[in-house]
């Protein structure tokens, strides 16, 4: 079991953005991986957390603090959270933990303020994320954000007209990409989080992996090199989806009209990370 002093690294980002891949690279075979522990439908201890929880950065959250502490100290786990644990070589277990999570973007500042964790935030081009989610028939879960009054008050109020006017799965997933990234991108300047774009990892995998691992104080071991070469088990197996062009410039992922709709929504939220590829 991990101890309360365990070195915790959180790899966060949107679903379908490469968090499993990057989490495996950072974990290698010497750090335990905890897979999406804040999935309220899969982890009993967080069943009442909700699908996309938002915690104001400076509020104590006494209901959740002891549960997160239990998670970080290795006292919460099940088949869902431990599904990637087979990568760990027991004889090389450093006691360190990598938490791969796509549903806690609204909690990251609170986690940073309350626990000695390090955060790596990964973002991927919205066209690629949206196309993958539509293909996978994911629900956009916009109501998970809109049903939180404090989230609306702190971040979403200026964007309610564009959120409420979204029609169809592509527009709704475009809004969801914005909602997922709006909070952490806005908070990032105040925290020592590491930032990574999926496209940089795909185009210059070894250089980008070495940069991140160096900043985390980790060696670029053979197991990490192998994980970097694998992509991840959650990535599409279709060769066209794994092509360098598709991974790094996904403008072919959506038809022209849908790209225009997505670009309009992204622009309305003022997120300009991929302005040159919209």
CATH C-level category: Alpha Beta
Task: Note the total helix count.
Answer: 13
* Overall mean confidence score, pLDDT: 91
The number of distinct β-strands equals 5
Order of helices and strands: EHEHEHEHHHHHEHHHHH
What does the overall shape look like?
A: globular
End-to-end distance = 46 Å
Biggest β-sheet description: 5 strands, parallel
Which structural class do you get from the secondary structure elements? Answer: alpha/beta
Q: How is this structure best described in words?
A:
This protein has 278 residues and is an alpha/beta fold. It has 13 helices and 5 strands. A 5-stranded parallel beta sheet has the order 2-3-1-4-5, with helices on both faces. Helix 2 links the parallel strand 2 (32-35) and strand 3 (97-101). It holds the Pfam family Sulfotransfer_1. Residues 117-233 form the Sulfotransferase domain.
């Amino acid at each position: 079991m991990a101890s309360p002093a365990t070195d915790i690294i959180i790899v966060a980002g949107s679903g379908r953005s490469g968090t499993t891949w990057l989490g495996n690279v950072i974990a290698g075979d010497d750090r335990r991986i905890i897979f999406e522990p804040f999935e309220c439908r899969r982890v009993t201890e967080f069943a009442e957390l909700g699908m996309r929880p938002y915690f104001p950065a400076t509020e104590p959250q006494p209901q959740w603090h002891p549960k997160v502490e239990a998670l970080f100290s290795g006292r919460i786990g099940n088949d869902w959270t431990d599904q990637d644990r087979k990568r760990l070589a027991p004889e090389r277990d450093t006691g360190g933990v990598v938490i791969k999570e796509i549903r806690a973007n609204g909690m990251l500042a609170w986690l940073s303020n309350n626990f000695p964790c390090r955060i790596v935030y990964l973002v991927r081009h919205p066209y690629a994320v949206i196309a993958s989610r539509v293909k996978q028939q994911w629900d956009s879960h916009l109501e998970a954000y809109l049903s939180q009054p404090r989230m609306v008050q702190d971040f979403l109020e200026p964007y309610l007209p564009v959120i409420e006017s979204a029609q169809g799965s592509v527009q709704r997933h475009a809004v969801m990409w914005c909602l997922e990234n709006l909070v952490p991108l806005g908070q990032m300047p105040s925290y020592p989080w590491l930032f990574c774009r999926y496209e940089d990892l795909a185009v210059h995998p070894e250089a980008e992996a070495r940069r991140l691992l160096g900043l985390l104080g980790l060696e670029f071991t053979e197991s990490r090199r192998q994980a970097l070469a694998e992509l991840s088990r959650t990535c599409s197996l279709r060769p066209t989806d794994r092509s360098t062009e598709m991974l790094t410039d996904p403008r072919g992922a959506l038809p022209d009209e849908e790209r225009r709709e997505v670009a309009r929504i992204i622009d309305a939220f003022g997120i300009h990370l991929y302005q040159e590829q919209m």
